[in-house]
Specification:
Elements lengths: L9 E3 L4 E4 L3 E7 L11 E5 L3 E6 L2 E7 L17 E11 L2 E8 L11
Antiparallel strand pairs: 1-2, 2-3, 3-8, 4-5, 5-6, 7-8
Length: about 110
C-alpha cells in the first residue's frame, strides 16, 4: 500500500487522494470504517479515458482522466488514456485502492478533469 505523501505529483480531494509515478497513478478512496464492505458492494468501472466508483450503488468518484495539454493558447485535447487491462483495484484498510497504468509515461497535472 502506498502512503499519502504530498508532493507536486500528488493531489487530494474530499473523496480521494492520489499519488503518481511517470508510468502509473495510485488512487485511494476512503470508505467509512463503520461500513462492513465486501467486494460485491463495490462497482469499479475503469475505462480507457474515465473511471466510475460506486459503493452500494452510490457514486463516490466519477470523471474523465485529465486532458492532454496541446499548447499555450490552445484548447485542451482529449482525456489521457490508460491501459485498462493493466489497471486493478483492491479493498484494503477501509479504502478502495486503484492502481492505474498510464499508456504514456508522463506526469499528469491532476487525476480527473
Amino acid at each position: 500500500m502506498q502512503r499519502w505523501e504530498e508532493n507536486r505529483f500528488s493531489g487530494k480531494t474530499d473523496s480521494y487522494w492520489y499519488t503518481q509515478k511517470e508510468s502509473s497513478i495510485c488512487v485511494r478512496i476512503p470508505v467509512p470504517s463503520e461500513e462492513s464492505l465486501k467486494s460485491k458492494d463495490l462497482t469499479v468501472n475503469i475505462k480507457s479515458q474515465s473511471i466510475c466508483v460506486k459503493v452500494r450503488d452510490k457514486t463516490i468518484v466519477e470523471g474523465n482522466f485529465c486532458r492532454e495539454f496541446v499548447g499555450p493558447g490552445k484548447p485542451l485535447g482529449e482525456s489521457r488514456k490508460i491501459n485498462v487491462i493493466e489497471s486493478l483495484w483492491t479493498l484494503e484498510d477501509n479504502a478502495i485502492v486503484i492502481e492505474i497504468e498510464k499508456r504514456r509515461a508522463e506526469f499528469w497535472p491532476n487525476f480527473l478533469d
